[in-house]
Amino acid sequence: MSAPAVPGPQDILRRQLSNGIVLLARRNPASPSVAVGGSLPVGALYNPPDKLGLADFTAAALMRGTHARSMHAIYDLLEGAAASLGFSGGTHTTGFSGKCLAEDLPTLLGLLAEALRQPAFPPEQIEKLRAQFLTGLALRAQDTADRAGLAFDELAYPDHPYRFPEEGHPHTVSAITRQDLADFHAAHYGPRGLHLAIVGGVEPTAALDAVEAALGDWLNPAQPAEPSLPPAPPPPAEVRRRELVPGMSQSDIVLGTPGPARAAPDYLACALANDVLGVFGMMGRIGESVRERAGLAYYAGSHLGGSLGPGPWTVSAGVDPRHEEQAIDLIKAEIRRLVTEPITHAELADCQAARIGSLPLSLESNAGVAGSLLSMEKHNLGLDYLQRYPDLIRAITPEHALAAAQHYLDPDRLAIATAGPARPD
Amino acid sequence: MGVARASFFGLRLPFSHKPALSITIARMPAGLTDLTLPNGLRVLLREIHTAPLISQWLWLRVGSRDELPGRTGASHWVEHMFFKGTPRFPGGELDKAISRRGGVWNAMTYLDWTAYYETLPAAEIDLALEMEADRLLNAAFAEPDVESERTVIISERQGNENSPLFKLDEAIQNAAFSTHGYQHEIIGSRADLQSMTRADLYDHYRAYYTPANAVLALAGDFDTPALLARIEDLYGRLPAGPPPQRPQRPEPPQTEPIRLTVTGPGETTFLHLCVRAPAASHPDFYAFMALDSLLTGPSNLNMFGGGISNRTSRLYHALVEGEIAVSVAGGLQATLDPFLYTIHLTLNPRHTPASAEAALLTALEILLAAPPDPAELARAVKQARALFAYGSESITNQAFWLGFSEMLGGLAWFETYLDHLAAVTPEDVWRVAREYFAPARRILGVYQPDGTPLPDEDAE
């Protein structure tokens, strides 16, 4: 038996329903189950400043009861079928994902449609959810990685909505009312811009029929256009903040700058530069320097976060509080090197081979394929993107990567956030 | 069920990429090869042609349970040293070689075993075969590498210490076991990590890393005769070595309830109710698995993720819906000897540990009062079957299961798992609940915030 080819126009069904919903479906004949994933264009960008966390809260409340079913009845149906379904709020979008045995797909899609279209926001469930959110925020206050990340966002995006945490703050979450959730849902949730992927042991045409039945007649003329974003320039000079988290053993460091959106022409060049900087092998050049040579950290690597907007390009590490400055210096030295001299042809070839070679692994699961299909749709990459991907990657040169790194990263204009216990200076 | 696993897996890399595994099953279908090489190496091969991938796992029968005081954390540290390479395959080069072929690799140290895996495009698997056979015998343990890894592992431990749950679990394990090697955390004590020497680690490696103490499991897109010939060539030449002696330190039965409190920073209180669970090979294991499913939702024995929610479980209903806790989780782990089963509560801030404990015990009493409804049990079995089905997508997971079950008592454990679970009766669950949750066998641990004032994060 030969293994399946890379997903492409030959085996991906893409249909836009009359109400705007886009379905992407692909059959995996070897699988007895189905992965469902998707997103709506509603996220934290719509949060009022005094009610940060509203989009997140709304997404979490969708499964807490509908006009047709109580929360217990929803989960009784779901867990009784050994299926799962969950929503999560993001910055630009609200995502959902689930899985079920193939025969239960209509049940899962029925629950998805119910949660999206008819959430009831039962008051007692809203209060339970609020208690869970507030506990989550209390734990966040004690998490050095979270605290460094929050401080980084404020430093790197001082005049941009990305500075706000999607999950809000205790006082903003406390201020959200049931009516806020219902109003937010009514104003922002709708079929336009909804992307849905269904991958697994089901015929794409059967998936289309099931989606049409569950969501085909949904309309919401009130859906707003997505707010436009201001530019996100790098800091004019290095900016720093240290968050004190008493009683901890380790400090976390997050440093970086606003990076490219996924649609930026130099995104893939940035991605390869980032692979060299802090991903390839054992966390790239930064792993080599901070972990392998200096022995300073269990983890030290880099991340390129661009999606629909200029997400952050960051380096993060967890270190002994006494070693914060030493680690920051080593990381800055690697960023300086990345923007000063081209990466070597050997390094580039390694990272290109890794990206192309890892496609089969990223596509082995239904959820992995569904994620790829959604990304292709969200960023308008085309159904043949995975088939073109090797050529796109091979076309990047060391000079492209250098120019891309120089465009976004300046070692003297970084936002540098740390969080940890008092330092024994 | 994000915190279902109370125990810590030592991983060389932070698992930020969270491979989406689950498991497959059914009966071991055709395509399985099971043999032992003359040097004692057990080899399990399963041909699967659903994706152009092969996953190799090397399992060693050594874990933190085998460590004596003074050398706690040695198994995990040896695992780290395995990535520092051999004279033939220098450390950093291996990371790059795996990555450039589009593969992933990692390792994990557990209470009972240590495992290394590589998953690669099928055409590239020879690198993993050559490299793993080489380092099984020839890991270098260079002194400078031992020292730089010492600080890396201490950093890993410091990261764990930032978590209240790590502190609580460490205290509970320490109190729950007086003689068994399950007494200490897998990562080891800070003092031992500071004092162990290269010789200590090398001795540990030489004692346990022998073909006769190992299981090699591969699954994926290969031709079995050709792969087997290559394995015999590469691994068959390794010397058998002396059979390792694993320390046997049976833990006496617990005769009195244990209570403990750990204090630390934060605002959130955690409560863990633990009992010693049956070993994986014990006949009660399956009934306990069903009990766990009723109490806190289905546990997923897979190494990586892939569970379902637990909102219809009894304790979620009683404690989260009852606003005693904001989350509840449980997790039964498959171990060689009885290890701890933990019911984990994150308390609603309006409740004290005492009121939460009372509510938890009330919910437990209901379960102890009568056999469960057969329909509740049937649901647990269906959920277990589905978890197996979801995992059939992952080649890495399929290879994982071959070796994992071998660590626990053999492939039969894996092959008959669902049948055993389906055979559990309501009376079995009732008996196991009463026996294992008897008051004298309980351990109650509380993480209590110490009132350390926090900077107001909103004040900026």
Keywords:
heterodimer, A: 425 residues, alpha+beta, Cytochrome Bc1 Complex, Chain A, domain 1, 2 domains, 11 strands, 44% helix, B: 460 residues, 7-stranded mixed β-sheet, 5-stranded mixed β-sheet, 16 helices, disordered N terminus, disordered C terminus
Note down, in words, how this protein is organized.
The complex is a heterodimer of chains A (425) and B (460). Chain A is of the alpha+beta class. Chain A has helices at 54-61, 71-80, 105-117, 123-141, 144-156, 170-175, 178-188, 204-215, 267-278, 280-293, 324-340, 345-357, 359-362, 366-378, 385-394, 398-408; strands at 13-16, 22-27, 33-40, 84-89, 94-101, 195-200, 239-244, 251-258, 297-304, 312-319, 415-420. Chain A has 2 domains: 13-215, Cytochrome Bc1 Complex, Chain A, domain 1; 239-420, Metalloenzyme, LuxS/M16 peptidase-like (Cytochrome Bc1 Complex, Chain A, domain 1), CATH 3.30.830.10. Chain A has 16 helices and 11 strands. The longest helix of chain A has 19 residues, at 123-141. Chain A is globular and about 60 Å long. In chain A, the strands form 2 sheets. In chain A, strands 1-2-6-3-5-4 form a 6-stranded mixed β-sheet, sandwiched between helices. A 5-stranded mixed β-sheet of chain A has the order 7-11-8-10-9, sandwiched between helices. In chain A, helix 9 (267-278) packs across helix 16 (398-408). Chain B is of the alpha+beta class. Chain B has 2 domains: 31-235, 2-Layer Sandwich (Cytochrome Bc1 Complex, Chain A, domain 1), CATH 3.30.830; 258-451, Cytochrome Bc1 Complex, Chain A, domain 1 (2-Layer Sandwich), CATH 3.30.830.10. Chain B has a 7-stranded mixed β-sheet with strand order 1-5-6-4-7-3-2, with helices on both faces. In chain B, strands 8-12-9-11-10 form a 5-stranded mixed β-sheet, with helices on both faces. Mean pLDDT of chain B is 89; it is low at 1-10, 14-29 and 453-460. At the A-B interface, helix 2, helix 4, helix 5, helix 10 and strand 9 of A face helix 2, helix 4 and helix 12 of B.
